[in-house]
Amino acid sequence: MNTRFALGAPISATMSKAMQQATCSCGFSVTSENRNEVVKVIQHHAHDEHGKEMTRDDVLAMMKQA
Ligand SMILES: [Zn+2]
């Protein structure tokens, strides 16, 4: 019996293998297969570099498959 399940496997691995990419208006670009990661990095970047708050929807709107 296989009792290992998916312990330790990243949740994102089961979601999508496509790479997601978002590019800021300043040229800063993030590429990850985990779109939550892209959202997080872009939000952090926008806040730190531009003093701008971006919602998850804002980031998803600028995201595309890479
Ligand atoms: Zn930027």
**Uncertain runs:** none
On the 0-100 scale, what is the average pLDDT?
86
Q: State the secondary-structure class.
A: alpha+beta
Number of helices: 2
Radius of gyration: 15 Å
What does the overall shape look like? globular
Order of helices and strands: EEHHE
Bound heterogens, unique: zinc ion
Q: Termini separation (Å)?
A: 39 Å
- Biggest beta sheet summary: 3 strands, antiparallel
Word description of this protein:
The structure is a single chain. With 66 residues, the protein is an alpha+beta fold. The protein has one domain. Helices cover 35% and strands 17% of the residues. Strands 2-1-3 form a 3-stranded antiparallel beta sheet. The mean pLDDT is 86.
Kindly summarize this structure in a few lines:
This protein has 66 residues and is α+β, with helices and mostly antiparallel strands.
List descriptors.
DUF1059 domain protein; three-stranded antiparallel sheet; alpha+beta; single chain; 66 residues; 2 helices; DUF1059; binds zinc ion; 17% strand
